[in-house]
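Re: [help] complex structure
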Amino acid sequence: MAIILGDNQYGKAESRVVRIVRDTARHEIHDLNVTTALRGPFAEAYLSGDQSNVLPTDTQKNTAYAFAKTKGVEAIEQYGLELARHFVNETDPVEGARIEIEEFAWERALVDGTEHDHTWLRKGQEVRTAAITVDATGEYVIGGLKDLVLLKSTGSEFAGFLSDEFTTLPETHDRVMATALDAKWRFTSVDVEWNAVYPEIKALMVKEFATLQSLALQQTLWHMGTAVMEAFPFIAEVRLKAPNKHHFDYDLGRFGIENRGEVFFASDRAYGLIEATLLRDDAPPANDAWRASAGLA
Amino acid sequence: MAIILGDNQYGKAESRVVRIVRDTARHEIHDLNVTTALRGPFAEAYLSGDQSNVLPTDTQKNTAYAFAKTKGVEAIEQYGLELARHFVNETDPVEGARIEIEEFAWERALVDGTEHDHTWLRKGQEVRTAAITVDATGEYVIGGLKDLVLLKSTGSEFAGFLSDEFTTLPETHDRVMATALDAKWRFTSVDVEWNAVYPEIKALMVKEFATLQSLALQQTLWHMGTAVMEAFPFIAEVRLKAPNKHHFDYDLGRFGIENRGEVFFASDRAYGLIEATLLRDDAPPANDAWRASAGLA
Amino acid sequence: MAIILGDNQYGKAESRVVRIVRDTARHEIHDLNVTTALRGPFAEAYLSGDQSNVLPTDTQKNTAYAFAKTKGVEAIEQYGLELARHFVNETDPVEGARIEIEEFAWERALVDGTEHDHTWLRKGQEVRTAAITVDATGEYVIGGLKDLVLLKSTGSEFAGFLSDEFTTLPETHDRVMATALDAKWRFTSVDVEWNAVYPEIKALMVKEFATLQSLALQQTLWHMGTAVMEAFPFIAEVRLKAPNKHHFDYDLGRFGIENRGEVFFASDRAYGLIEATLLRDDAPPANDAWRASAGLA
Amino acid sequence: MAIILGDNQYGKAESRVVRIVRDTARHEIHDLNVTTALRGPFAEAYLSGDQSNVLPTDTQKNTAYAFAKTKGVEAIEQYGLELARHFVNETDPVEGARIEIEEFAWERALVDGTEHDHTWLRKGQEVRTAAITVDATGEYVIGGLKDLVLLKSTGSEFAGFLSDEFTTLPETHDRVMATALDAKWRFTSVDVEWNAVYPEIKALMVKEFATLQSLALQQTLWHMGTAVMEAFPFIAEVRLKAPNKHHFDYDLGRFGIENRGEVFFASDRAYGLIEATLLRDDAPPANDAWRASAGLA
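Output below.
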């Protein structure tokens, strides 16, 4: 019986890379949080402290900043591929690279109704994400978003559920449904119009959330995922994680005031948590595509 | 020499009140975080534990929810005034009330390009705030916003500053300037079109931030504040607090790569912090208008 | 009618200064979050962008780090005084300085029951604070702590309170009382054994919280504050802010299970918020002692 | 080609359960954050919205609170096993249950040097965790901790590493090493003295962190993990995740001040992130033991 080193990886998490494109007076901004992780024959770093195969995490960070200039960051999926390929191809002992990226959205400031050239406001809550893995088995790109906060004030039911001795929840046919969606989708190609696809995926999911008469958050997630997969044949898998952010009717009847779904207490905790994976029955193997590093993206 | 009880107040902080208006198929949503605090002859609660003058904080919370239905929350300033007046006028021992409100913005989901009737996405980062005080000296309304995250990628300088033996900062005539603005403005009237004024104030501040060639964040704040006060004679005072969220040029020259204001490290801490109060020379007294409770709004 | 610049200040917030004392093999650690702010004739920085009186916030940060070495940080109150005096006395235009410090506590790692020389674990939740103001009127030191999380599982009542049409809270003579205390105390001297006094103040407040049969959080705060002021004649004022972190009995009776104050739901929001100021009737004027900058300390 | 439903689960996340044991005057406190998730034939909830197999998350929450009374929470591993077994054995369609628990530590208040019977202070930063899985393949318990913040001010080196064109990091033989450890350990038995083992595991890891002359954080993690596994034969696997919380020497030489590892800037981001799995070569299969729900524990 011996102790062995199993899965391991190391890298630099959360490098805050801001890239301004200023070739013309109308600037562009890309605001990223970049995590890199390397996989390979690093056992001696653990077992004996020998660092000769270890490219410092500081170097990984420098590379992320340098590539923001030399390769650009127009699409985070492409930028992540460039970084991952570099580490695998250019750094001899590295066998696999994992890049996780969060992108924070900005919108142009409006000045007298006109978009400003070089001033922005942070936009929305949602964060676009990408997770890229490159190793001997291939290249894997997972797109995604998180913290997309959605709420519908009707069109949501919950009834006909299983009941036991601890069940006190009443059935409802009209409730508020709110979530902070975490969605990830696996591409089967790296030849994708990344920036064109992203807003379409988001719009499809928002549309399903809005228009489906929801019988459960599970059903809503299924429809959101299938809408995306039916529209984009190069997406083989969608993973969804959705907290059910409860909005409880506030009991105003105690004060002789009628509350017909108008006044709610928005609860912090506990919350429901619904998770689902949708995949094509002919999806190619994911291998390490879903193996996270920091887990931020 | 004796120990005496000085300023005191008590209340319920951060009641999360969500109000849906559903009189027609096109719903409206108001998403609030409400803090109430009462002032008055509560010394015995402290000195002897006698609660006979103390309206429970639970009751204050119930009132906030009840008023969301009976009075509505169309403008948080007005809703706050209703709450404050209620506590001062209807609850015998209460002499002063302080209401602090945060409002979280939502925008309608777009479905096939059309605004949806009952589905929303959380919008932006900024939070609209109001702080209302009612006491024997009168009624005071402070409007505001916080976490309005702004960035300009040029049009900002910092030079000609004082220098001592610990000064190493180089002068610059082109830098990124970014902040998360906290702005508060004191009204001299309670007869204001609250919801019309708010976006205009925000737009004026964004415009000044965008268009002024900034010599310092101090100067930018001054211009943002004066623009608001010149436009609205019923605003007597503006208080601004702005972190200077540093974006440092990443040194790519070490790798033979030119970085002309294109790649930045966005630093978390430390940050500059610039504060200013602007007021009219004939501003009426603020009395307790700025005395906070939870300090959230 | 003109717009004038009122109160203003500027500085560097949240410099994370870690000081290791390593003169012997048994190291010491001081882990600080330092905010500095300067007050004086800085109007032109706002009005015209002229920075000639403005010592950069970067320089203030450098000074905080330099003084951590040259002056030491054995007591944050003393270190803050050194910094404040330096800015007021050594930097010509500066008229007032405000230093706010948070100190994070560490405890020595135990190795086989023995304290280790150079390894520590972060200790507790509570943060020791200091806020120092030096200006033409004198020197002011406010000590404090925040996020001291306390809970008692009995010995707390709440009854006999005022009731109105929105009051539904039942009276109780045995409840959980929990808070995250924010306490500040104003010294009337700068010749204090800072590090000896701090743990005694904390112990006194914890003792009162524990041993007093509480009739209300207000009464508990009063006893905590008076205990401190009676013990230390050089403390002229104590300010306390205490959220009432509600622990609600979970209704197990619905399942035929008796719950006699044994199982609670710990609620996040809303929470009660009780505030009090205690001061000596002969307290010297506070002047700007309580005027915050970042408000962290 | 069809879209199919893959892995899925649903449950109630972050129920804040506080359990007071008050059978004698000397109370005990257990402060938990409990997540439950169920696995089984729930496809129809997704595909058609049919909830007939779905035990509401509200019921799961009720069960967590009820069991806190009827089963007790003396050891979170045991309490989690009770909950998981209940759902799998008592709720007909449920095939697998996942329970994730965080426990927040409290220490008794000291009053005049004596431990108080019913008053506590929140203790430390670290959170004890447990993740229990029960399904047709067996019962799995993973213990753990997170946010154990450790720092050593010497005894840490980093040198001899790989270098490329983006490498600028200097070698060092004396640096600060700090982390916020996330450690998980998989038991091969459910017949364990849970509460006796936990502090021993923690002490072993702290000892290795403190006493090993570190050549890299990787090596430190390896030694921490092997120390645990050598001491406890019923632990088959240890997973470690450790941010390298950088403390950078502040450059005081610019001011003519020597800084020999005494004054540091504690950086927020980016940070190194080192991960490792250690396992016995004869470890039984983990099956779904590591499949997370909320991922909090």
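Helices of chain A lie at 43-47, 57-70, 76-90, 194-211, 217-231.
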